[in-house]
Amino acid sequence: MRERLSMDKDWRFHLGDPVQAKESSHKAVYGHAKAGGSRGPAGIEWNDNEWDTVHLPHDWSYRQPLDRENGVPDFGYYPRGIGWYRKKFKLDPADKGKQLLLEFDGIATHATVYFNGSILERNFCGYTSFVVDITDRAYFGDQPNLLVVKIDATVSEGWWYEGAGIYRHVWLTKTAPVHIVHRGIWVSPIRQVAGRWLTNVETTMGNESEAAVEYQLISRVAQADGNILAEELTNGSCGAGQSAVITQDLPIEDPALWDVDAPHLYKLHSTLVVNGEEVDTTVTNYGYRTIRICSDTGFYLNDRPLKIKGTCNHQDHAGVGVALPDGIQEYRIQRLKDMGSNAYRCAHHNPTPELLEACDRLGMLVMDENRNFDSSREGLRQLGNMVTRDRNHPSVVFYSLFNEEPLQGTPIGRKMVKRMIRAVKKLDSTRPILGAMNGGVMEDEGTVDVTDIAGFNYMNGGYDKFREKHPNQPIIGSETVSAFSTRGNYISDNNRQIFDSYDREKASWGNSVRESWKTINTRDFVMGTFVWTGFDYRGEPTPYEWPSVSTHFGILDTCGFAKDSYYLYQAFWLDEPVLHIVGHWNWPGQEGQKVKIMAHTNCDEVALYLNDILIDRQPIDIYEQYEWDVAYEPGTLKMEGYQDGQLVKVSEIQTTDEAHTLRVETQKPVLAGDGRDAMAVNVYAVDGQGRFVPTEQSKVSFSMKGSGVILGVGNGDPNCHEPDRAEERSLFNGCCQLIVGSQAGEEDIVLTIEGNGLQPVSYVIPVQPAEEPPFVPSIDERYINNWLITQEIAEARPDPNVTIHPTDMNSWEKVDVSFGALQMLRGASGYVIYRNQAPVSDVEGSGRPYLWFHSISGDVEIYVDGRLQLKQFILWPESLEVPLQGVELKNQVTISVLIGITPDMYSPGIQGSVSIRTK
Ligand code: GAL
């Protein structure tokens, strides 16, 4: 039966290309050209003991110091470079005969995947998930498997922080030879008439067995509580080595619809039966919903017009680079939901699958975007991958083919888009397709009218003109706003490279939040907006460069702390009354000076009080909001919000005392002790009365006990150069954040936070016992494979240390001893020599080194660098320990094993794995 195991744990990692001894002999070159012959760090003998141990997801880029000299502003001045990952693991003998698939959710950027010494895959897009079939090449039992990934992140695909490394999850899936193929389920519910749906299911099964099979596919629709609502059985046959596509329609009456407010999910259970035995089952989450677009009235979800209130986002977060634990995906999507946002644009690339799962669960629509605008075979492969991976997600409602491509308004672009659309529609014709354009929309021979939707990046003034020309084409603000603000800051300062928060700073091509929303919300034919950006991200510190290392565009900072515009969106997008005071009231020494104060509100009238004295009462135009210059006087600034004359909301800010201690808020009440969960822990400076101190900038330090670990820290300051992998951080305008990860265990976490002059805080995060999801453990042992054996059985005892001429590829042959005894030695008499070379330098100091033969028999003599180590007659195969004596522990020693054979020996020779161990 199917098993899916995490491959995230315990990889060896090396930054940069390890120095390799030059091997230019014919023997080396010849050997390297053979299957399994990869050398250096890709080979089994490579010593990675000194490499770091890391867990996935892992991003090495942000862990490096910032590099102003060589760094690129777009990448946030973080170095990228080359990195190597190695993982050695064993497979159970019971896995023999199974199909084994490695799934890589994403690697930045160019990845070469080696498995047991052969390159099995090359992947060229840092956002594309891919699989590697290791079925043919796997070892079972004692002989370990070696998975190596070389990553070249010197190449880039974007103009933002892309990270570097295996920054998403890796999985190993084991299935029976007759199975449902990878991504072989496509569920596409179709509404027939109101309340009646057909759940269209396309299942692809594969038969990798040696014989044709008769199969039965059972598909069942289950509610969230497990209750089965529909079932369909299909019988069929499938030839050996063939695959079959089975189409089924499961009728469902009145399903609970997936919607942004109530994201009901269903499960499709697929079971494949052969000869009365269940050979495979999978579970696919999906939802029932309809989408429709109209050139006059925009987007419809479940027949309800829905203005798209979206944000564009890249994928990094404070503390963890692009290697986000799943819990942080959830955190980010929830922060956007709480703002009233209903849509997320994966700019400018497809996301990790866990992000889409979070969007499915939380009710967030998704524009899934392709990275490379490319209609070549490779381009279409990347695009097709996105579609087949993501099409079961109810959250995904748009596919975007490109962002701001110079060819967008040209006949070449048109041809490319046509081909790409055809490729997408073949796989999924249920989602409208667009390109995010920043020009070319008025060109007749461009791309715009061949897409389902015209995507407008900025170009606010162009909507009406375009509509005149193309009245039947729906329009969306695929990218909007690009306003600048710095969280908690109220005075723009060019020297300090920070912006105020009064919604007036913006890129020259952008708009204020208010301008943009007014333009879009007053035009029914514009489907909605995708604001640049939801979260600040590393890199692209426009309009600045160093010392700014991350953006100023976000509505939230890199930690997810809200800037003031967050509340402006709430005012626009939430139905409940919102009244937020933009500004703080801590201006010591500035008594009598004017301080700008602004309301972000959806109330129709606001009254402003200073120390209980009414200063002003104003009607509010929702698209304008309102601001006052108030003479500073310590105390309380209060706003009252009125709706139709009724008081509906009160907000106030107060002048606080100095910071006294810290307040901790966690993303969720408990952390699962499963070794995988993670959460954001937000830290706020507060005064003696527990009031937030918005001006505190001091450094605080963290320590932690219990089943948790600090994965990283951040504070949302775009100019901060403190490391994110640390146990301390400066508060930025009163806040900082820790990302806390679970370590398998049940001990509650005690987080202690200390700051200079601040009362230390001890905060308990309860840990809920939870099972660790199944994973593939790594092993650390050093194995020697790639033995040579003399091709002929010598009658007379040869010199065991005879030199092999480097051009001689034919007196010796390669032998994989892990497969057991060689038939040619059975019943023979004479001598053979096994020969190998292995590095033993590292074992020095760490204990007494010895060679370990899992199974060996014969009249055995073992030599290392010509020195006899052991001589023993072994009639029946047994394991053997050979301490190394008088051997210089250098990088390469030569091991020779002479075996005398007589016909009465049951199975002479080396017949199992060999390793170097220490005591
Ligand atoms: C757009 C681009 C985004 C980002 C943004 C900044 O042109 O699509 O990736 O660079 O500008 O305003």
Automatic annotation (TrEMBL):
Keyword Mitochondrion annotated: no
Keywords for the protein's UniProt record, in alphabetical order: Glycosidase, Hydrolase
Record InterPro entries: Beta-gal/glucu_dom_sf (IPR036156), Beta-mannosidase-like_N2 (IPR054593), DUF4982 (IPR032311), GalA-like (IPR048230), Galactose-bd-like_sf (IPR008979), GH (IPR017853), GH2_Domain-Containing (IPR051913), Glyco_hydro2_dom5 (IPR040605)
Domain Glycoside hydrolase family: 662-761
Domain of life: Bacteria
Residues of the Glycoside hydrolase family 2 catalytic domain: 296-371, 381-545
Any one GO molecular-function label of the UniProt entry: hydrolase activity, hydrolyzing O-glycosyl compounds
Pfam families cross-referenced by the UniProt entry: DUF4982 (PF16355), Glyco_hydro2_C5 (PF18565), Glyco_hydro_2 (PF00703), Glyco_hydro_2_C (PF02836), Glyco_hydro_2_N2 (PF22666)
GO biological process: carbohydrate metabolic process
Keyword Hydrolase: yes
Glycoside hydrolase family 2 immunoglobulin-like beta-sandwich domain: residues covered: 184-289
Domain DUF4982 stretches: 592-648
Signal peptide from the UniProt entry: none
Beta-mannosidase-like galactose-binding domain residues: 84-158
PANTHER family listed in its UniProt record: BETA-GALACTOSIDASE, BETA-MANNOSIDASE
NCBIfam families the UniProt entry points to: GalA
Family under the similarity heading: Belongs to the glycosyl hydrolase 2 family.
Protein name per Swiss-Prot or TrEMBL: Glycoside hydrolase family 2 protein
Native organism: Paenibacillus lentus
